[in-house]
Structures are given as C-alpha cells and as structure tokens.
Design a protein that fits this description.
2 domains; single chain; about 0% strand; mainly alpha; about 80% helix
C-alpha cells in the first residue's frame, strides 16, 4: 500500500510541470543559439532585442519553475490530507508515517528535478554562448570544492527534506484553526523561518568550511526530526477536516 501511495503522488501530478521543465531547457538552448547568431552577424542592431526578450522570458520561466515547485509540494500535501480528499486518504489502511513519507518522497523528487533543470539550463547557455571560456581559470576556481562535492550534495539533500517538512508542519498547524487556515499556515511558516534563522546565527561557524557544512547538516537533521514528529502528532491526534 505504501508504494501505491508513492505511485499515486506521481500519477496525479499535472503533466504541465514536465512541460515546464522541457520549456526551460529548450529556451536556454534558444538563448545560446541566438547569442551565436548575434555574434556572427555583421549587422547587430535588431538581434539584441530578440536576445533580451528570450532572456527575459527565461528569467520569468525560472521564477515560475520555483514557484510551481513550491505550489506542487503544498497542493499535494494539503489537498490530499487536509482537504476533502483527506477523508479518503486517512481511511486507507496505512499509518500516518507512510502518508507523510510518501508525500515527502514525491516533494523531494520534484525539488531535485527542479535543481537539475536549473543547473542544466545554466550549463546549456554557458556552453552555447560564444564567449571566451578560460576553463583553466574555471577549474582553478572550483577545484578546491570538488573534493567536498559529496558534502555539498548531502547538505542540499538534507536541506531540501527539512524545507519540505517545514512546509508540511506549517500546513498542519494552519489546519488546527477553523478559519483562515491558509493564512495561519503561512504565518506559522514565517514564524518558524524567523525563529530558526535567528537561532542559527548563534551557532554559525565561519572559520572552518567543513565544520560549517557539517553543523548545518546536523542542524537540518535535528529540525527535520522536529518537523516530522510535529506533523505526525497533528495528523495522528489533531486532524480537523472541513
């Protein structure tokens, strides 16, 4: 039943999101190709207009990509747990743990896909744009960080889990109220973010990169446990469906 929940997370996602990912990659290729065309033409008065237009559209689509990912994570959790669909979800023969984990896996996959699309689009533009590329300088810049690539990846992975679970907890807190649930959920998220950000300042380590990243990972793991347990407690004992 658990894997059926996971499959359901992807089966019921609007294919518009996949089309958006494809559109971002195609548009990044068009920007690179247009930049090549502009660079090779002797008369360049009209070309920058199209190039600037494509770049503006690309920027808008990147913003849309980020917002749509957040919206998808919220919709898939709130809609299927605390809205009308929750009456069906909460009667399934699975524990609240499985429901949260299934939603988390879905949200994590869409977040990772968004990261991948963003990185690929930047790389496509970089390699297609006809600018002088000094790969030696680039390598010298990133080489000190290559040995810590796994640490970056782990930090990003754990941070994504923490972020998604903070959204779930905020939604769960918001549904405790009979009115203004969405507003209360947003307020809960803002308060959580401010408190965690303020506390993190006092535990930030800046003189040692490895220790700084390691501390952030441990902090995120601790916060993930708190967010998860808070969401589980509310889902288990305080559900207030309307």
């Amino acid at each position: 039943m658990f894997w059926n929940l996971v499959r359901y997370e992807f089966k019921n996602v609007n294919k518009w999101y996949l089309a958006l990912y494809a559109a971002v990659l195609v548009l990044s290729a068009l920007i690179g190709i247009q930049a090549q065309t502009y660079n090779n033409l002797p008369v360049k008065e009209s070309q920058p207009v199209l190039l600037i237009f494509l770049a503006t559209v690309f920027g808008g689509m990147m913003i849309t990509l980020g917002i749509s990912t957040i919206f998808l994570i919220i919709k898939r959790f709130k809609g299927s747990v605390y809205d009308r669909q929750g009456y069906l979800t909460l009667t399934l023969p699975v524990s609240e743990h499985y429901i949260i984990i299934a939603k988390l896996l879905g949200g994590l996959v869409w977040s990772i896909l968004s990261y991948i699309v963003f990185i690929l689009s930047v790389l496509i533009i970089f390699f297609l744009t006809p600018i002088e590329k000094d790969f030696t300088v680039l390598y010298n810049f990133i080489s000190p960080y290559l040995s810590y690539g796994w640490l970056y990846a782990l930090s990003l992975f754990v941070g994504s889990i923490t972020w998604i679970l903070s959204i779930y907890l905020s939604i769960s807190i918001g549904q405790l109220f009979n009115e203004y649930r969405t507003a209360m959920g947003i307020l809960a998220y803002i308060v959580i973010a401010i408190v965690i950000g303020y506390v993190s300042i006092f535990f930030r380590i800046e003189n040692n990169f490895n220790m700084m990243i390691g501390t952030e990972i441990l902090r995120d793991l601790f916060l993930s446990a708190i967010y998860y347990l808070g969401t589980y407690y509310i889902l288990k004992n305080k559900v207030n469906l309307q």
